[in-house]
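[Meeting: bench + compute handoff]

Bench side (C.D.) handed over the final construct sequence. Compute side (W.E.) agreed to return the predicted structure before the next meeting so the bench team could plan truncations. Sequence as handed over:
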Amino acid sequence: MVFSIVLLFYFMFSTFTIISNAVELHTITTTQSLTDGQTMVSSDGTFELGFFSPSGSTSRNRYLGIWYKKISNGTVVWVANRDTPLTDASGGGVLKLTDGGILVLVNVNSTNTSFWSSSNSSSNNNIVNPVAQLLDSGNLVVRDANDENFLWQSFDYPCDTLLPGMKLGKNLVTGIDRHLWSWKSSDDPSKGEYSYGIDLRGFPQLVLLKGSVEKYRSGPWNGLRFSGSVGLLPNSIYTYRFVFDQQEVYYEYELINSSVFSRRVLNQNGILQRLTWNYKTQEWTVYVNTPSDNCDFYGLCQAYGICSIANSPVCGCLDKFGPRYPKDWGTADWSSGCVRKTPLDCHNESSNGFIKYSSVKLPDTRNSWFNRSMTLKECETVCLKNCSCMAYANIDIREGGSGCLLWFEDLIDIRELTEIGQDIYIRMASSELVSEVGSKSNRKMRKKVIVILALLAGVLVLGLTLALYVWMKKHQEQKLNRGESLDRGLEQCHTNESHKEDLELPMFDLSTIADATNNFSISNKLGEGGFGPVYKGILEEGKEIAVKRLSKYSTQGIDEFKNEVICIAKLQHRNLVKLLGCCFQGEEKMLIYEYMPNKSLDLFIFDQTQSKLLDWPRRFDIINGIARGLLYLHQDSRLRIIHRDLKASNILLDVNLIPKISDFGMARSFGENETGATTKRVVGTHGYMSPEYAVDGIFSVKSDVFSFGVLVLEMVSGKRNRGFFHPEHHLNLLGHSWRLFKEGRSLELVDAPLGEDSCCLSQVLRSIHIALLCVQQFPEDRPNMSSVVLMLGSGSALLQPKQPGFYTERTFPEIDYYTSSKQTTSSVNEITMTVLEAR
């Protein structure tokens, strides 16, 4: 009787009811069990697993849970049997591990009564020695003692706490959906009425629900953060990311400093908190609350309303919209929302257009459609053709924006975000567009009047005249040299008359370039080609440049040099290297480009050390960038351009590893209706040239497609096509890839540094498949680049590829590949070749 009273007192006034001299375990096997009074501790002592009763609880219910041990003995982060507690009648709990790798919580009096059990989603039926272990991350896992793969983990079944490394979202393969659920109260860990997780309807977004009613919405992920998450900004405590692919959709975060403890908790009041441990006060402090203000509450201003915390009242209507019922809005009743001042007329596309609204949290995306490869202009076209489409925006706001997000119902839950908001384009009647354009025109007109009045004063006119005269005298000789050089280049390089137009390239003084390159110092030299050396330079204003200098003694390069000026002078695309200007002074001829700090792609993928810096997502982004650059050359540029020398060393990488196609010395341009030609002067690099070009001199846009396919296989495998060796056959990389594809072993092609864990296997297999379509023997079988870009950005079915070009076994002198390995590891020279053939 006395013992029962003492035990009850302990239940009421302690955080946990466990025996003070509890036995600590590190693992549980099938021959062991965890009883009330024993605990399991992570190897670093941060987390502890055991039985407890919540602080302040008047009941004697017992739960199996995980809590912080090192810093705050009493902060529970996970509860197993939160909805099925052990009561007095059960007589205490025991945690057992079955031979099948399933954790079972039973009572002391009966091993047949189960209060809670884990699942086993693994397809492995050959479990030999299952073991349960509490990891340093706070993750309780079950695995085979001989295998590191988890049969089950508590991180897949979160309660109210999101720990570092825990995923919040859904596994689209297994169906596991990870949500946070609040406790019912501070002393009752059963599921409360609040939940927080990813809503997959439309474009994914995080949603906080009270039952089935939305209370808060994060907004869609925009490449940097969730559109409406005010507190989700770069910081010194944690990093975060959002993953959305064919296998999973989830959000997670990781701590930057292991000595810092931070967690996200959904409390019983429906507030999502970021808590950080304060060592001085020995308590959890609030880093950020969500919702953080009135404008965070879902749909406060309803359809087409916009919430601004800086205004009073906070709700208003978007520009060109007005309250549906003005009297209600006058009494701060915003439930009716807003409507357009001018209704839409969808009978004619010309009667509609779009107005841009900036710095806002994007509306609810539950009834949205998205395409991650479309441009903003394509997005506008698609939306305009569908009368139900109310607005569009970019999915990713990085690097100038990409992707397409469309809304098909009223726009709800918009708020003003001055610093981190983004742009959205909302459908409007054409009359509203005219008034918008008219007001802008009036403002521009007033500015023009001011400028004209200033010009009439005469001072500026005289000054400009004098400056022009001085400039013309100073640079007269330079302009003549420039014009003569370019004219000769145009006449010698092409017959197309359209090339003779003024290229309008900025001219640089020789002295300026000499100063920038430290007088062409050898320490500034980046490399050398057939035309001559390339130097790094820094202009006076600090801008870094690359200077391509035509060698006076070069036997190859003068034609290519002039051709490059013509082909690239007016090309503007984020995946093409940018020509900044030129220098023609005396015998010096130089082209000035933007500087690429990461140099060329081949220095990464063919180097064992550097290749580790390019994980699969980066390689796939580079593949997509090269494809978009080629599509621009073949289809969207002012002239149809065929590169003819696409290879890894001609792909430059900027500071963000964005690929830039370079070296247009071998390129050919065509008219709008031309797609190819025949030449007696075959130029290019062996290993990348298509069969019809290398043998017969026939080139077309499909020649570049072939080179692109070779490049993709090299990026996946980390091996060069030219010089590829395999001990089982004498095929090149194309033949080896084709053989593996036919045998269903394409994953054997993947570069070792990538590994299966660091890449999306379905994406890799699709890339190999597309590459094999590009390197088919006959050009008519190969896709064009618009199809390639579409295939890379979608999950549509692919045609079966036919045999690749050059699929014949090469003949070599008999070599013992096992004793001659030192000789075969040397790199292959990929110098651009020129072959003259008589016709």
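W.E. noted at the follow-up: The chain has five domains: 1-157, 160-292, 296-437, 475-594, 602-836. C.D. will use this when planning the next construct.
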